[in-house]
Amino acid sequence: MSTKKQAPRVGFVSLGCPKAASDAESILTRLRAEGYEVAPNYEGADLVVVNTCGFIDAAVEESLDAIGEALAENGKVIVTGCLGAKKDSAGRGIVEQVHPKVLAVTGPHATEEVMAAVHQYLPKLHDPFADLVPPQGVRLTPDHYAYLKISEGCNHRCSFCIIPSLRGDLLSRPIHEVLREAETLVKSGVNELLVISQDTSAYGVDVKYRTGFSNGRPVKTKLYDLCKELGELDVWVRLHYVYPYPSVDDIIPLMAEGKILPYLDVPFQHANPRILKAMKRPASAENNLERIRRWREICPDITIRSTFIAGFPGETEQEFEELLEFLGEAQLDRVGCFAYSPVEGATANALPGALPDEVREERKRRLMEFQEDISTQRLEAKIGREIVVLVDDIDEDEGAICRSEGDAPEIDGLVIVPEGRDMEIGKFYQVRVTDCDVHDLYAEPIWAAEE
Ligand code: SF4
């Protein structure tokens, strides 16, 4: 007896102009490449895709009729094409209003979104010979946390950096693809998503914040919308490489509501306006102290980490001291500092006033020493508090090696729970902070939190 499963079958109805036909070809090619069969009629199909036209009234009618027929004959219908993008004067989708039972609606040129909807409602057959990797891909991180890359490249040209010349301008990944990856990771057991890119706050700028579709709903390619969606996944969501643009202010309430972690990794790099200008930093004209104050007003528990460069070409002693003053006022939780290093090809190397190695290193050391007290005081303020931690490892001597909401893996501190040897790696627990040193917190377990 053969145990071979039958391939999932998709019915396809295509209306409209040659551009719509070309979209249809691209979707059909993807379906066939992924092992779906194309059904010749409604009865033989597990699901139907209707590619619509919305050009003139007659075409709209024809498309709506075709959707109605597919719903009546089959029941599982995904709509794509021009009519899918059409809205009434109140901004409501025409298709959704006439046929609320459709599973998903996308606009034209949306092969990826259509395939995402097909995968959701009619999963591919798992073929162990073709699918040699698990759905979440091969990852280098532990099972319980994962990096989620949302874009590649960068539109800025910071004078000390050569990344744009290596990786090109900003290219945002389609929102549905990012969200699908996040969902797959969470299903595979990931409890913490680390959102990364070169410039996270710029997500979607290159595609003019285009509306994509995820799980049949329109979602903008924008950091706020992404955070909102990720916030529904019920895992820790941590943002890295966020520049202090005014638009970031909108995300802080999501942190205060507990949707995403109250944590921001903001690479300020310097505080003196002349140096920031010479660095060509994004958002260099913003009043960062004022911004930080406002963030803390909205979300008092926010952890802010940042990185700085000491000894940038031309930096005077006074300008460096201004940076220390900024740190004194900003009271950042975590700080990393690099002595300026002339990367080959960076335009900053041509700036006048290059400083000797010893001066750059000495300023870096002074900055780190200055910050050490601030970071320690901020950790001390947590002693006695109950916090949630995620267990990264169990060490027979030290106990459970965990992290709090304020600690990103690899770069921040740890929460060490000496009595936590029975805790499980990758799970959340409630603990009480008992002590701290310069980088880490020490805590005792209270009870095992829900997964
Ligand atoms: S340092 Fe500047 S140029 Fe380099 S990746 Fe970051 S924002 Fe872009």
UniProtKB/TrEMBL annotation:
Residues 380-447 form the TRAM domain. Its EC number is 2.8.4.4. It is found in: Cytoplasm. One of its GO terms (cellular component) is ribosome. Binds 2 [4Fe-4S] clusters. One cluster is coordinated with 3 cysteines and an exchangeable S-adenosyl-L-methionine. GO terms for molecular function: protein methylthiotransferase activity. CDD domains: Radical_SAM (cd01335). Pfam families: Radical_SAM, TRAM_2, UPF0004. Catalyzes the methylthiolation of an aspartic acid residue of ribosomal protein uS12. Belongs to the methylthiotransferase family. RimO subfamily. This is Ribosomal protein uS12 methylthiotransferase RimO. The gene is rimO.
